[in-house]
Specification:
Elements: E1 3-8, H1 22-39, H2 44-50, E2 52-63, E3 72-82, E4 86-94, E5 100-112, H3 123-126
Antiparallel strand pairs: 1-3, 2-5, 3-4, 4-5
Length: about 140
């Protein structure tokens, strides 16, 4: 399911160059992922009940154009791919003119709460991803 979150760029997110600081985009993406989990009925306490945590292990981001104070941004989050213990969410940030300002692929791993080791993505989360032939074949 594609989930969107709308935000407005605040003055505290602007750097000395007069646009959104690059690190803030990572925060916007995190807010978008949290919204994706919530909309899919997987809040943090649900993961705890399943005995897992999710850990971001890689973010590949492309900064397409600058954003300025008071821009209205929409963070789109969509499930992209699923491995055995990891999954990838595709995220796109657009502005009020529907222009892409940044896009990213975010890889997360499911980690057992007690052993602190990676473990199979639970079915409750896995079912949200497109079906692939690789799951269960030893691929991450």
């Amino acid at each position: 399911m594609d989930v969107t979150l709308e935000i407005i760029v605040r003055s505290t997110e602007i750097d000395v160059n007069g646009h959104v600081n690059n690190a803030k985009y990572l925060e916007y993406l995190e807010w978008g992922r949290e919204e994706w989990y919530e909309q899919n009925h997987l809040p943090y306490d649900r993961f705890i009940a399943m005995g897992i945590q999710t850990v971001t292990v890689n973010i590949t981001i492309n900064y397409r154009q600058e954003c300025r104070q008071n821009d209205r941004l929409t963070i789109h989050t969509t499930p992209a791919s699923l491995g055995n213990t990891s999954y990838v969410l595709k995220q796109v940030i657009t502005n009020q003119r529907d222009e892409i300002v940044a896009d990213a692929l975010v890889t997360s791993v499911t980690m057992d709460l007690h052993t602190r080791k990676s473990r199979l993505v639970p079915q409750e989360l896995a079912q949200l991803f497109p079906r692939t032939e690789n799951r269960g074949s030893g691929n991450p």
